[in-house]
Amino acid sequence: MKITKSQIIDIIISSFRSNSEKFIKLVFSDSYAKADISKIILKPISIKSEELIQFESFKDNKAYHENLNISKSLEKIEDLLDNFKQILIITEGKTYQILQNKTFFNLKQINNNETLKETSHNKEKNYILRDGVPVDFLIHLKIMGENGKVYKEKYDKFKQINKYLEFIDITIGELKEKNLISDFIKCIDFGCGKSYLTFALHHYLKNLTNLKYQIIGLDLKKDVIDTCNEICKELQCQNLEFIQGDIKDFDKLQNVDMVFSLHACDNATDYAIHKALELNAKAILAVPCCQHEFNHTIPKNKDSDFFNYLAPLGKDGILMEKFASLATDAFRAQSLRLCGYKVQVMEFIDMEHTPKNIIIKGVKAKISREQLVKLYGEMAVYKEFFGIEPVLDGLIRGYYRILE
Ligand SMILES: C[S@@+](CC[C@H](N)C(=O)[O-])C[C@H]1O[C@@H](n2cnc3c(N)ncnc32)[C@H](O)[C@@H]1O
Prior knowledge:
Blueprint: E1 2-3, H1 5-17, E2 23-31, E3 39-47, E4 50-59, E5 62-68, H2 70-80, E6 84-91, E7 94-100, E8 105-111, H3 123-126, H4 136-140, H5 155-177, E9 184-190, H6 196-208, E10 212-219, H7 222-234, E11 240-244, E12 258-265, H8 268-278, E13 283-289, H9 293-297, H10 305-309, H11 317-338, E14 341-347, E15 358-364, H12 369-386, H13 391-396
Parallel strand pairs: 9-10, 9-12, 10-11, 12-13
Antiparallel strand pairs: 1-8, 2-3, 2-6, 3-4, 4-5, 6-7, 7-8, 13-15, 14-15
The structure holds S-adenosylmethionine (SAM).
């Protein structure tokens, strides 16, 4: 049966709105422009409670993603209808197969038993990058093959990258909501190492947001930085640069929006937090690693209340080590709160895949004087209980809002 372009749009609009015949998928294939995008798959997704349509475009065996709201999606669909010979619309209960020749659209409609899977909480949705969909930096870093299939032995890394992107997605949403950023974002990854996560951030900002961006990765190791810059060149990554240097000395940028410190060992996390404050960071994401400081300093004061009240914890090395590392991160979280950040401490990746990690996330917030007084008091008691003077305290004391 012949059908007009506006009737096709009507089918799509009603499936976007319908509760009984929900939109599941739309596929554009067999492009008129052979050398260009070969296929585009549209699916509903929900990000931070906003209902969006994800456009997944395939070009030269690579996938590019764009998430648009409903009205922008309809504008784009209208343009795309002119460019593809085959259009497949799948809704709950109906499949519409549309073929276009140069003069008209021909529709075949059949019933189906498809149902829309949960778009906001299921694992498939939460995976911003998907197994089976080629992404250039993941191919280059040998996490997936050319066909997009993730290598079995790299699945943990793949999961971790996805989890990291989820945190970024949520944090950027918060920064926008609070008007802390508008259409541009400046990011630094301190201790970027091989930069899987820095490249992931670049991919995300470039392909999954409308933000303009600048990203710097910094690391002590020259060979690592050279390799990252080579990859950057090969993948033609714009606005991404890797610099060799020590976090403590970094002075290339001011007023940074997001600072990352991922798996920086021991006190390197503290230096990154200090530098982030110096750079007036709007958001800080830190995944600490090898937190040795408290484990060394707590046992030095055997007269402290810690040994008075919690002596059994100090008797076995492994317990002391685990306890001290949590105590260090609790101190970091509290310090950031005192510096005027809303802080959340969350699990970074689950136990099944890599050893448990935590992420400390701080986003600038208004904190009342009353709250600051309370936080400061808690901090003083905490330090006295353990009998310690943490390195971080010395570094960032000047940023405690209560002392302003
Ligand atoms: C365990 S790696 C983590 C790499 C990457 N962030 C990740 O999560 O995959 C820690 C990196 O931090 C770097 N690093 C440690 N202290 C640093 C400092 N003070 N300044 C710059 N880089 C530092 C190391 O050279 C190393 O590459």
